[in-house]
Specification:
About 40% of the residues lie in helices and about 20% in strands. It is elongated and about 70 Å long. About 55% of the residues are buried.
Amino acid sequence: MGTGSVPCGRGRWSAEDIRRSMLVYAVTDRAWLHGRSLADCVREAIAGGATFVQLREKSAAHDEALTLARELKAVCGEAGVPFVIDDDVALAAEVGADGVHVGQSDMACVEARRILGDDAIVGVSAQTVEAALAAEAAGADYLGVGALHPTPTKPDAVDVTMDELRRICDAVSIPVVGIGGVDARTAHELAGTGVDGGAVVSAIFATDDCREAACELAGALGRAVGRRTRLRSVISIAGSDSSGGAGIQADIKTIEAMGLFAQTAVTALTAQNTTGVFAVAPTEPQMVSAQIDAVFDDITPDAVKIGMVPSGDVARAIAERLRAHEARNIVVDPVMVATSGAALSDDDAVGVEAAELFGAAAVVTPNIPETEALLGLLATRGDLPAKIVSEEDTASAASALAAHFGCAFLVKGGHGTHDANDVLATPGADGVVELRWFRSERIDNPNTHGTGCTLSSAIASGLALGLDVPGAVAAAKEYLCGCLRAGLDLGRGSGPLEHMWAFR
């Protein structure tokens, strides 16, 4: 749905996009935040399976509501989830929301459409067949029907029976979402009504773990409406490691272990094991392009991880196809040298990656040697360290790269001797680069083959789940630490990680 879909209805969101998005319709309420931010709660809900978000904050002053709306619009936009505002058409227009939901006593659907334009999503509340038909005739994109059960968030709502809900669904052709007392325990009652999903407030936002609650709810609603929940996907564009420890193989294991569906475009074949790389056969650029097209034309990925790019021609092919498909949540791991010391990409590949892929990336994840090599592209800067030997050097290098390329850089400290501290440099709109350290102790494990591939694909998985870059980095480091702590010991050299540590 979203960016990768072909519109056949309202602007960015096709009619089918909207119908699919009804499954877990999350309506906000700040009553249960308990110190958490609403943006973080929504981000976690989306990561758990929320497919649509409505901002409903009737008591908020305009400036406060505007701030909330802007924050949630950014969160939903990153995750490819529709975002609408309850009742306040002016606010929806001001913030550029995807649309609005209006009640029967609020602004008429036709007027909301006139203000927001034909591309906007307009949802309407209805409690009867007559009201539902009138809303559909007025151009509503979907209906919210309820309350199905008494609920504290809508104490004055008219109760709608399951029989009436069924009659409404039979009468209209637009999507219908049931609201009011819907949760994982009551979701089964929607079975057979024809409804497309459930709209919930407290079932997500009143819980201690919004992600877990949304995940449970998505499963329950999916079973009730006879539709499986959509499994998010990540494509790894990287080289194949015949030993299974790094490259495409490590990426597949990581993506699947984090609960997503892995897809691939192989950029090169390698003959390698834990002791070294013995042969490399690059894939023809046209074949790399064909693999990317085949993936995006069917199961559109929610994130992209780019690893080994053997040549400039392959780098150009990747950049061109990702632009054509409007790919998002791109993580670039600029693989230059294998753990064993073997070169995996030529000089032209590094330059093309930097020129054509870094600017489109959500984050680039070089290790210390790769960072030193990338600093060579900024050689005119006399204030940069030739060698990175301290945290100050690391921070300075990350800041310079982020400012130059206009994207976040995570410089990994795994090549240090005492710790595994990474620094994330994020350029701001004002030109100021923000630094954030992710500190962790070095885990005593000599088997580190594929750590960079694993971390970058784990970050891509977090972005696909709706996390922001810092959240995705934190989750990825936690996963990688688990892989190292498991202490897998295979092979005669630097062995692979235990990617499935959480399941064994």
